[in-house]
């Protein structure tokens, strides 16, 4: 059971790290693009940049909320499954081995 929990947690952590890495790359690209623009187009691009950052923040917040709910549901399911497995294991041990 503990192995399954550790495997689940490590998989979840890897997915979150991958996602954060992608988001970091996008933000780096946006920052680089912002600094490489000419002075004339800088103002309008800056507004677009702020809007993109705002949209990205909103999306990240939504994703974080979704992932937190999914993690909680999966964790609850794993705990319930582990308890059921323990019950069945003990029952089987009593019925088949300890008789």
TrEMBL record:
Protein name (Swiss-Prot/TrEMBL): Uncharacterized protein
Natural source organism: Anguilla anguilla (European freshwater eel)
């Amino acid at each position: 059971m503990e192995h399954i929990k550790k495997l689940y947690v490590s998989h979840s952590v890897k997915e979150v790290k991958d996602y954060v890495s992608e988001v970091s790359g996008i933000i780096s690209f946006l920052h680089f693009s912002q600094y490489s623009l000419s002075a004339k187009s800088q103002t309008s691009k800056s507004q677009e940049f702020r809007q993109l950052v705002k949209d990205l923040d909103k999306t990240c917040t939504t994703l974080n909320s979704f992932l937190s709910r999914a993690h909680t549901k999966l964790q609850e399911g794993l705990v319930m499954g582990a308890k059921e497995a323990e019950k069945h294991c003990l029952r089987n041990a009593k019925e088949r081995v300890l008789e």
